[in-house]
């Protein structure tokens, strides 16, 4: 009988220990989920506004290009045409890098169940799809290849030290301004954004030759950005 009692006591201890371990794992899992949710919330708050501002600036630029006359200085001088292209590419790069940061830092865009975030994810993917689209019979004229977009984003991010990381709440991410982008254009950004520049060339050629729909890619992208905003 003492052996039976001891066995029952041992069994009870083991069962209690098992439940305790299971409860501890569940608590830790909930704590990790809460921590991840807070990180996502912090990053969303930090980068959602820059994304919306960048999207607004880019769509406004595209609207001006497709709806308003372009100055003779921009069309007749190499420097003018470069200025037109470089600033437009900078606005696109600015939008791309903020969306890239949000995606890579949180990972929530692929798995979120939040209705608003799912809508944001869908709209961002539609913009990606438009940049991937081939718009001529030969299959050329892609806006910016997926790999090129990642390259542009990585080159737009400034590297910072540990102290800055700590002061920035652990995020430690800052992007390049237009002055730095322009200085690095020829070596860092011109090649990966070359196809997007072709969109601008095709639009300008179509306007001179009065070809309809030559600005279709830019119009579609502009409308998608408006929907995002």
Brief account:
With 229 residues, this protein is mainly alpha-helical. It has helices spanning 2-67, 72-76, 78-106, 115-132, 146-156, 162-167, 178-189, 194-208, 216-228, and strands at 157-158, 174-175.
Percent of residues in β-strands: under 5%
User: Given the helix and strand composition, which structural class is it?
Assistant: mainly alpha
H/E topology pattern: HHHHHEHEHHH
User: Helicity, in percent?
Assistant: over 70%
Q: What does the largest sheet look like?
A: 2 strands, antiparallel
Shape: elongated
The helix tally amounts to 9
Q: If you compute it from the alpha carbons, what radius of gyration comes out, rounded to the nearest whole angstrom? A: 26 Å
- Provide the spatial order of strands within the biggest beta sheet: 1-2
Low-confidence runs (pLDDT<50, min 5 residues)?
none
Q: Count every beta strand, where a strand is a DSSP E run of 2 or more residues.
A: 2
Describe the model:
Helices cover 76% and strands 2% of the residues. 24% of the residues are buried. The chain has one domain. The model has no long low-confidence stretch (mean pLDDT 77). It is built from 9 helices and 2 strands; from the N terminus they run αααααβαβααα. The chain is mainly alpha-helical. It is elongated. A two-stranded antiparallel ribbon has the order 1-2.
